[in-house]
Amino acid sequence: MRVPYLRIRQKDAEKEIDRLKASGEMLRDFRIRREGEWVLVPVKHSEETSDFEENPRIRMDHVGSFERVADFFVIKEREGWQEIIKEIEKKQSPRAIFLDSGVEGTFRIRKLQRVYGTGQPAGIHKENGLRYHIDLERAYFSPRLASLRTEIAESCTRLTKSGLIVDMYAGVGPISIPLLKRGLRVLSIDVNPAAVELLGQNMRLNKVKGNAIIADSNGVYDCLRGVEQVIMNHPTQSLPVTQGIIGKMKRGTYIHTTYISNRMDRIEFDGVEVLERKTVHGYSPSSSLFYFLLEKK
After folding, report:
1. 107-134 pLDDT, tens per residue?
2. In the chain, N or C terminus with fewer CB closer than 10 Å?
3. Domain total in the chain
4. Cα–Cα dist 17/43, whole Å
5. Which domain, by its residues, includes 7?
6. Residues 39 and 66 in one domain
7. What are the Cα distances from residue 223, in Å, to 7, 59, 169, 243, 248?
8. Same domain, 106 and 147
């Protein structure tokens, strides 16, 4: 699991670990890691994050059935969800737990019911060294895509020639902001005004400046000029709609897109070269989330 950590020189590790334990800052639910002369200690607060192995005594038996966002948990409504609540309560000490009954409407807002604890499904979420204002009652966000977002940011950085990158379904900014941190030119678009408001807050929180607009990306894309790369992270959108937008793009445009499909289906795009295709994670017993890097021909 990806958590904040501190990098401590080995000669100072014992003293610093004792101090972190005494202050309550150390995350004891994760194993300390060593890299050469450095000791990596999981903590509650740090700008740096990395993957750490959970201690066996608190390892969760239902990983994949829940998501941790900020200081609360979201579990999918499915058979046995009551047992998942008991496990989270026992092993993770959450502020609150919410039951997710699915996504509704154009803005893709989760239908949530608090089933444990107090407060709303909102807070500051840390991801890949950045911080985000999250409010699941106003805008969609999923921490499960953290690794994919990192890969997209790295691909955009590698492929850019200083042209414009359009993040078509930007949400609260978990792809746009890492790109802006890298000094790239980004136009962020989302149809949900609340998402764009949170995106603006997150730009200020992470000390970056960018351009964000409230609009239906599918309706305004053909008005844009000078676009070098397009991010289309809207996996539930139908393939014909995505294909129609790709058809409007100029030759040489790079497209980063996601799509949910049955694992046995053959997913094909017209007028592009598929540069990369990967399975991100399972979505249901028979379907998965796929990522594609395409180049318009």
Report:
1. 999 999 999 999 999 999 999 889 999 9
2. C
3. 3
4. 10
5. 2-56
6. no
7. 47, 50, 16, 17, 10
8. no
